[in-house]
Amino acid sequence: MMITDKVALVTGASSGIGAATARKLAAEGLKVGLAARRADRLEALVTEITNAGGKAMALQTDVTDLASCKAAVQTLIAEFGRIDVLVNNAGLMPLSDVDALKVDEWQRMVDVNISGVLNATAAALPLMIEQKSGHIFNMSSIAGRKVFKGLAVYCATKAAVTAFSDGLRMEVGPKHSIRVTCIQPGAVKSELYDQITDANYRQQMDELEKSMTFLQGDDIAETILFALKAPDRMDVAELFVLPTEQG
Length: 247
Ligand code: NDP
Fold this sequence. Notes:
Layout: E1 7-11, H1 16-27, E2 31-36, H2 39-51, E3 55-60, H3 66-80, E4 85-88, H4 103-131, E5 134-139, H5 152-176, E6 178-185, H6 199-211, H7 217-229, E7 238-241
Parallel strand pairs: 1-2, 1-4, 2-3, 4-5, 5-6, 6-7
Helix pairs in contact: 1-7, 3-4, 4-5
């Protein structure tokens, strides 16, 4: 199948890595569904992509809600006919120490970072199985490979994403010819750190940003495109992508 015949759904497409990925896929000729909660951001990106000659649609979606994910997939299919690529990218990272007991933030991370991936996968998988093809990208992190102080809950959610990706790949690759790629970025310039409510960790992240050149969302989009363009026989199972200066 030509890449230009493919249809993609990108979650968390209203900013950062997700927006960059949507732009990149649309520029390659895919039709792209943009899923996130901020409809104004999605509409602005649809306009940008359309003006550049691409095809995109805004799908206001809350990934913590399975019905919302199913509605997004159904609307995408009604408009573009199929779903070949799912980029499970939506995520949150409000850092804090565990003894600060910011339990609401823990729960939001579990809901978006883990349940969000499961919900969107559950919504898209039946159609990919029917099509006997598909490619699911799950956005884990360097934090899914090693644990950092202040990121205990975030690391736990990203370790879950990495584990789920591997298990999913083992099941749906051989049985349904669906590829699964787990992306594990290091520090990327985005709005992710804006949600940190702990002043000390916010300052630490600001200092980290001054200490090295972060990746751009476009760099991660490029790695997604690399895995997507690989021949069907080849599943790039994991991509660990770091800023050159990140130790
Ligand atoms: P951003 O904050 O820029 O993007 C996060 C996206 O998630 C937004 O589009 C937001 O959209 C969306 N989102 C949050 N909650 C929901 C929800 N309930 N339903 C739907 N969408 C939601 O950060 P990044 O681009 O950096 O983050 C993207 C992914 O990359 C995350 O999974 C993050 O953990 C991961 N990552 C980021 C790294 C970094 O250094 N930046 C490093 C490693 C991994 P909206 O608010 O409109 O719903």
